[in-house]
Amino acid sequence: MNANNMFTFFYPVIESLSKGSLIKKVMSFLFRLIGVLSFVGGVFLFFKTISYAPDFWFVVLLLSFLVSSFISLQIWFYRAKAIMNLEDSDFMVIPIFSNFFRAIGENYAVFLIAIGVGGTLNLWFSSYAYNLSEFARFIPFVSLTDSFIGGLMFLLLTIVIAFFVLLLTYFLAENILVLVEIARNTRGLKKESNEEKQVTAKGA
């Protein structure tokens, strides 16, 4: 290795970071890893808890949670693919965070709906509805009442909260992308201004 190479061998890595290609690969891998861990965690919780299930309806609740874990796997893989499809640019971290916010909202919404459906069936048909308390603590503004109306309210509230969580995270994600557009437009205007000045200078 000559002297020039010795002082510049890390340049390709820095350039890859600056253009975003390396960051895309790393974050895409992390998103997939989160998806796999979410699904493995869901499977682990299912088999760990099912032996303590007091009745059939609690098993249904666990199954709904397992399905949400599998959907979570798909969400993280989809977002990982979306990151890899981003074009290399100087503004790479911002759209990655946008996808991250969307993934968080999508996962939480799926989890809420799964618990809402499984929990409602428990409130309607199971005499062990108190077992829902561990799951319900992840859902704000919701109280459990083991009656038909209570179950219906539980289902409706989980769906409404899931929708607003999804709306909020998409709103944050879109606002983050607006920053990218502002930065790109500002750069474009600055470039056009510099070109106009050069043309004017040459004409003078």
3D architecture notes:
There is one protein chain. The chain is mostly helical. It has one domain (18-203). It has seven helices and no strands. The protein is elongated.
List keywords for this structure.
elongated; single chain; 204 residues; 81% helix; mainly alpha
**Ends apart, CA distance between termini:** 50 Å
Average pLDDT works out at: 80
Number of helices: 7
Query: What is the percent of helical residues?
Result: over 70%
What is the radius of gyration computed over CA atoms, rounded to a whole number of angstroms? 25 Å
Count of domain modules: 1
Which stretches are low in confidence, meaning pLDDT under 50 for 5 or more residues running?
A: none
Shape: elongated
What is the number of strand segments?
Answer: 0
Biggest β-sheet description? none
Structure class: mainly alpha
Beta fraction? under 5%
SSE string, helices as H and strands as E = HHHHHHH
